[in-house]
# Entry
Amino acid sequence: MSKGRVLMAMSGGIDSSIAALLLHEQDYEVIGITMKTWDYSSSGGSKKETGCCSLDSINDARMLAVSSGFPHYVLDLREEFGESIINNFVEEYLAGRTPNPCVLCNTYIKWDALLKRADQLKCDYIATGHYAKIRHENGRYILSKGVDDTKDQSYVLWGLTQESLKRTLFPLSHLTKKEVRKIAMERGFADLANKSESYEICFIPDNDYRGFLKRRVADMDERAGEGDFVLTNGTVIGKHKGYPYYTIGQRKGLEIAVGEPLYVTSINSETNTVVLGSAEEVKGQKMMVKKINLIKYDRVPENFLASTRIRHKDPGKPSTVNQTETDSVEVFFHDKVSAIAPGQSAVFYEGDDVVGGGIIEKEIE
# Structure
């Protein structure tokens, strides 16, 4: 007897493929779906189309579904993706901020689209190949880290709502990447086990976001062309190629030499100025985080002690979090941290549990 009908998001990669197989073996009624979010050929990049949106990946997902005996569909989300994710990506860089498109895509494109299609297909659940856990406790659905620290993806899932978490399954939550590859080999999917992974942004497979911005914004040189590099004391020390091409904390690629390492400490889009400073000057201790989504609690407890991550590979730093408004918090790090970048995600943890997250609005002096 089926445990329920599941709409399984399948990218064609090893993680979602093995997740689908495991659900199928556990007597769920699986329906595979691959979301076409981007057509890279339209961006004019130099690298061949790869990753979750390529025709090869869609075919790989379909072949696995057919060979396993469950249906597979393709959902075209290119229009929604372009309007929500691509436009935001460009606008954030033009505002001198550093966006995190994967978080927005998970929250506003993939889960929304999956739940809508799940309702149409009368599915009880949706599922993905993310390495993370969900449990129900004290009336709330709580997101926490997966068992594989090197693959944990809870950071990019902070935007999921209680309704989304309630209907989501993560079949790989108890597995490491090594174990997933072993399962693929044991099931006779050696090609999957040896398939390389893509770590680039899906719509920039050549990893050249500067080239992408130039192609996307016809008047980029007029809107954000050459400007001044200045030190934190205001001294002009050279020219940059345009403020959108730099990020907070960047050291390499500045093409300027003053006898000591310099880092981007801030970006002013209004004056087309990029401020450089020492490793110490790029550090900060307090920030405002807006557009928060809370998961473990309906409100952050007063003077809450959390481990806060400000980028994907950040292990997290001890901090005190206070909710100042319905949609914002202030975070005070117990020790200074490097490169607080407006536009990036800040995620607050209590042990392995995600308390919530939001978008970094600004560093507070």
Observations:
- The radius of gyration is 22 Å.
- The longest helix spans residues 101-120.
- The chain has nine helices and 17 strands.
